[in-house]
Amino acid sequence: MEPWRGRVSRRDALKWLGAAAGGAAFGGWFDASSSAALAQERADAKAIEPFTGPGPNPHWNSIGPYISEPEKAPLILLTDRPVQLETPRSYFRTAFTPNDAFYVRWHLPEIPKRVDLVDWKLKIEGNVNKPLALSLSELMEKFKPVSVAAVNQCSGNSRSRFQPRVPGGQWGNGAMGNAMWTGVRLRELLDATGVKAGSVEVQFQGLETGPGPKGLGSNVFLKSLKLTDSVLDEAVVAYLMNGEPLPMLNGFPVRIVVPGYFATYWMKCLTWIRVLSAPDENFWMKTGYRMPDKPRGNTTPEEVKAGGVKTVPITRMPVRSFLVSPDGSLKIPAGMNVTLRGIAFSGYGRVVKVETSEDGAKTWREAELGEDLGAYSFRTWEAKWMPKTPGNYTVEVRATDEKGNVQTDEGVWNPGGYLWNKIEKQDIVVGKAS
Amino acid sequence: MLVATCTAVFAQFQSGSYGSKKANSIDQTAPDQMSSDGNFAVASFPSFTPELAEGEGRAETESFCAMCHSTRYITMQPPLPAATWETEVNKMIKTFGAPIPDASAKKIISYLETHYTPEARKQ
User: Fold this and answer.
1) Using CA atoms in the order A184, A256, A318, A180, what is the torsion angle rounded to 10 degrees?
2) Is residue B107 part of a domain?
3) What is the per-residue pLDDT across A210-239, written as a single tens digit (0 to 9) for each?
């Protein structure tokens, strides 16, 4: 029962309110105090569909329930073991994604729950002159800290848009986030160990493991980059994320940050940096996370079936932009001056232009860009929009990066479900205001 | 006078109603107890086991697939063609080394093809 009911009866209240006429006017108050009015229940809210397909997922996010994981705000569940969580759309209103809302994607079921920093060391080993094992405090004290704002986006972000659909994590658009990462330059660590001549790649391994047989991708997750890749000059072993320790689910105590590259290389709970004298041929390099060696990584099911589609490891993220609000959940009164807000980014360099269209891509207007936080950060944008007449509108947004890459209205298709960057569209209903 | 004004205002809007269906709620969790040692730990990661479609092969699917991952990996997928399900199960065995006997693998494939294709999927 409602606790206050025992203390104030309806009759007492009516008596205090005085006159009989007053009593009648306020009578409705007390009817509403029935248990149904106080419980948090809803009668007519429709649950989202339990799955989407075979057509594309029509929602901005994926369709799982909101759930609560350690150190996290309620996020959208894709899978619970290993943990995969998507960031809801509204968290992208700001250039930096809050740590507790940052999406989560693990590959193997045994993920770290506890790290003892008295024992834990980051090892830099392999084909080096002087292997190193550094504690977190040594990383923080012995090397110069550097910071970089960089977008971490899953290779399969927006996979649920693919037609035909492909198996894999059915992400909506929320498998991405931007943070200010602070840590030690990877090059500085490699220089301290002395990479031997004849080395070709550097391999990253974290603390996640799986029950699969040794040597297979189900046992260990390993990613490597070529030592000649210029991205290594910008890579950071990060111990701070937006100025705070990383949540366990995002890779505490350190993860490798590879600005501009898809998140597959950003090893969480990074514990081994291994210099290799031969190319890495493990599953996660040789088979997984590869894209067709064709423009935009685009192919067709027919071409794949016929065989002979050459593949290469996925690397940089194509240019993308998103409308964050309004998100279509509110009907807009005609004549109201609303603000379209969103973010844009590119793995090829800074975003220089964001445009919106509200007339089916016949005309495009340039949006105002927010603060430039660096080439690999989210860049916020906004544009005023006043729909004058009631009706159904579609707001579209496209971005251009400094290399001249522009988003188009063409999707891509590849068997992995990678590299989606089609122009985003949002249906918005405008209603009569008079 | 008061009554007339009230009626006129009410004609322009409808007040909300309060229903009786179960709410979609997420429980808050209690803050962790911490000590100043070198251990950095979080609470367990919760499980959310989905209900798979009823039918022949469900028990094999639940037990073998869940050796490495939760069966949400099945329910999360869009409806997939039968051939894709066969490829996926074979990938788990051949590429990832899942120790599934042939007879059980056949049952799992048949189960997925019966319940999780565009033609058949209901939940």
Assistant:
1) -50
2) yes
3) 999 999 999 999 999 999 999 999 999 999
Look up residue B101 and give its amino acid. Answer: P
Query: Residue A150: in which H helix or E strand, if any?
Result: strand A146-153
Residues 6 or more apart whose Cβ sits within 8 Å of residue A144: A184, A185, A188
Among candidate residues A49, A113, A250, A47, the one with its CA nearest the CA of residue B46: A113
Residues A343-375: pLDDT tens digits? Answer: 999 999 999 999 999 999 999 999 999 999 999
Interface contact A66-B24, CB threshold 8 A: yes
B33 contacts chain A (CB < 8 A): no
- The residue of chain A with its CA nearest to that of B30 is A70
pTM score above 0.95 = no
Contacts of A81 in chain B (CB under 8 A): 45, 47, 69-70, 72
Closest partner CB to B70 (pick from A39, A40, A81): A81
Chain B from 40 to 69: CB within 8 A of any A CB: 40-49, 67-69
Q: Cβ of A79 and B70 within 8 Å?
A: yes
- Are the C-beta atoms of residues B64 and B98 closer than 8 Å to each other? yes
CATH number of A320-431: 2.60.40.650
Burial class of residue B17 in the structure, from the number of CB atoms within 10 Å of its CB (0-12 exposed, 13-18 middle, 19+ buried): exposed
% pLDDT > 90, chain A: 89
- Does a structural domain hold residue B121? no
Pick the CATH number of A93-288 from 3.90.420.10, 2.160.10.10, 3.30.565.10, 3.60.20.10: 3.90.420.10
Looking at the DSSP assignment, which residues form a beta bridge with residue A216? none
The structural domain count of chain B equals: 1
Domain extent for B68: 58-115
Q: What pLDDT does residue A3 have? A: 39
Chain A residue nearest residue B98, CA to CA: A212
pLDDT tens figures, A133-172: 999 999 999 999 999 999 999 999 999 999 999 999 999 9
Asked if the peptide bond before residue A82 counts as cis, ω within 30 degrees of 0, the response is yes
Residue B68 counted as domain residue: yes
Q: Which two tokens stand for residue B113?
A: 């093809």
- Round to whole Å and give the CA distance between A103 and A176: 6
- Eight-state DSSP code of residue A196: P
Helix (H, G, I), strand (E, B) or coil at B8: helix
CATH number of the domain that residue B62 is part of: 1.10.760.10
User: How many Å is the Cα radius of gyration of chain B?
Assistant: 25
DSSP A188-218: HHHHHH-BPTT--EEEEEEEEE-SSPTTSTT
Q: Is residue B64 part of a domain?
A: yes
Any idea where the domains of chain A sit in the sequence?
Answer: 3-38, 93-288, 320-431
